[in-house]
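Task card 7
Instruction: Convert sequence to structure tokens.
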Amino acid sequence: MKKSVLGLVYVWEIPVRFYHWLNFLAVAALAVTGYLIGKPLAIQGAAEASFSYWFGVVRFIHFVAAYLFFFNFLFRLYWGFVGNPFASWKNFILHRKEQFKEMGEVLKVDILQATVKPMDTIGHNALAGFTYFLTFLAFAFQAMTGFGMYSAMSDAWLPRLFAWVVPLMGGDFAVRQWHHMFMWFFIIFSMVHVYLVFYHDYVEGRGILSSMAGGWKFVEKECKPENS
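Output:
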């Protein structure tokens, strides 16, 4: 009779974990401040309006978070080429037949819940990798539209690189609408992401939750039976 033991595999390197948590903080700050910018609160007070400047602070936080978000995103793209196999860009772009087959298996677990069989993948499964690829495209879109709008009020070199976005997309109002719409994409994605992390942690039992803190996952290994 074969026995199984749990082994440890170092999956998420420090740069990947740093990117993940900094991205979480940046996206959270951008979503909250972006919502307030789109729909400001009517805060009343007896003090002179110029003394409060709360909306200016909201915009400042939004801009700082945008810069962190942008350069953190560029760093993750770079790490996709120099990191370990679990961080490689090859996990995010479907280019093998096995990946498409795995996507179907994941859908049976995540959506249809037709099976609770643990997946064999240690890093990102094929569906998760493809989903993250779509989020990378959304990241690029948000950065381009955000800096495109910011270029109208800034002479800095980075926003000016995206000054062409607003005329291309039909004006400032249209860009703001698209930028705001994609904010809700990130909010919905975050909710689904958190749910699936907890769900897969329960189904697979590999320490998905703790792996993004310590980097390690548990993997079952078969041992040869002892001679009796």
